[in-house]
Amino acid sequence: MSLNREMVQQGQWLFRYRSYLPLVLLLGGLAVSYVEPNRWQGFSLDMLALVVGLAGLAIRMHVVGHAPKNTSGRNTAEGQVADQLNTTGWYSLVRHPLYVGNFLMWLSPALMVGQPWFIGCFALVFALYYERIMMAEEAYLTGKFGAVYLQWAGKTPAFFPKWTGYVPTGVAVSWKKILRKEKNGLFALALVNYLLEQWQMGWKDGSWFVHPWTFWGYSTVVGLGVYLVLKFLKYQTRWLADDRG
Questions:
Q1: Residue 10: what pLDDT?
Q2: What is the distance in angstroms between the CA of the first residue and the CA of the last residue of the chain?
């Protein structure tokens, strides 16, 4: 088997389990924090982590909110799904904007660990993990869209966005789709950062909830409330239903 084909197959497997990467990040962060103290603690670090995380979430929301049905989605059970090729909006700047958003969202808890070398390790693991997923997606899109895809890919960077040549989507934003698809993001971001913070503040030494009501503590409560409300609306009402998938 060629190396390229092997990496594509690895990417297809990793695609199904990409949602577990934040858990690996959390466990790694807890382990590092147990051994080494946070070198960057403070309100400034909280704000930096918040801004970086929300920037990633905002990118994801924009991409998902303007995407046609069966594109740019969490198609874990179905594998790769693309009824049409996205080339506008964020896709006019970068080929994998959702993964740019993912990187920024999970860079946030990596920052909370407060160790420069851990941030570097996180970036390396993320690159190796998502490189294979991107290769699998691009192999699928090349097979489905052929020359059209190759022409677009030839002028659009894979991960680091260009900042010229933006093409508006021409598709109205679907807030219902954003709320339905991205309801986990804010809560997960706040919860992971809160767990890291509390671990560093005393949990690792057996001092439980010495300072529970921190910035991330309140953020987690708010995030949980929003998540539960949206979960109820999604499964018990039709308020978040639309025809955009």
A1: 74
A2: 37
Q: CA-to-CA distance for 159 and 134, rounded, in angstroms?
A: 9
> Is the separation of the CB atoms in 221 and 207 below 8 Å?
no
Q: Token pair for residue 209?
A: 């909830």
Give the residue ranges of the chain where pLDDT is below 70: 1-3, 70-83, 243-245
8 A C-beta contact, residue 189 and residue 57: yes
Question: Can you give the CATH number for the domain in which 60 is found?
Answer: 1.20.120.1630
- At 155-179, the pLDDT tens digits run 999 999 998 989 998 888 999 989 9
- The answer to whether the predicted template modeling score (pTM) of the entire model surpasses 0.85 is yes
Specify the pLDDT at position 111: 94
Neighbours of 200 (CB within 10 A): 19
Query: Which residue range forms the structural domain that includes residue 93?
Result: 3-169
Tokens of 232: 């109820």
Say how many domains are in the chain.
1
3-state secondary structure 29-98: HHHHHHHCCCCCCCHHHHHHHHHHHHHHHHHHHHHHHHCCCCCCCCCCCCCCCCCCCCCCEHHHCCCCHH
Whole-number pLDDT of residue 244: 63
Phi, psi of 167 (to 5 degrees): -115, 115
SS (H, E, C) 172-202: CCCHHHHHHHCHHHHHHHHHHHHHHHHHHHC
Residue whose tokens read 């991205």: 182
Q: Decide if 92 is inside a domain.
A: yes
